[in-house]
Write a structure and sequence with these properties.
- By secondary structure, this protein is of the alpha+beta class.
- The protein is built from 2 helices and 4 strands, in the order βαβββα.
- The longest helix is centred in the N-terminal third of the chain and has 13 residues.
């Protein structure tokens, strides 16, 4: 889930959303900021919420894009759904 409520609409529409569509995983977009305000997190940081059968098992606050990429790679590494050799997360 990504809160894009603070993103200028032209940037979202023509740059960010098309790039998000190319990702090999599903992503929800909160255009108004209402859905994500109930989730844990800190301003200007990413929050990775790990679930097991819709139960929260871990919450990680991530401060940089590099750290987020590393966390996503780790999460996908331990997932049965993806073959990391076929993913391009850069």
């Amino acid at each position: 889930m990504a809160d894009i409520s603070g993103m200028p609409s032209l940037i979202a529409r023509f740059v960010a959303i098309p790039q998000m569509k190319d990702r090999p995983f599903s992503m929800g977009l909160d255009r108004e900021g209402d859905v994500t305000k109930m989730l844990p997190g800190e301003e200007d940081k990413a929050t990775l919420i790990r679930l097991d059968k819709l139960k929260i098992i871990d919450v990680v606050i991530i401060e940089s894009s590099e750290a987020l990429l590393n966390e996503l790679k780790l999460a996908l590494f331990f997932s049965d759904e993806y073959d990391l050799r076929q993913l391009d997360l850069n």
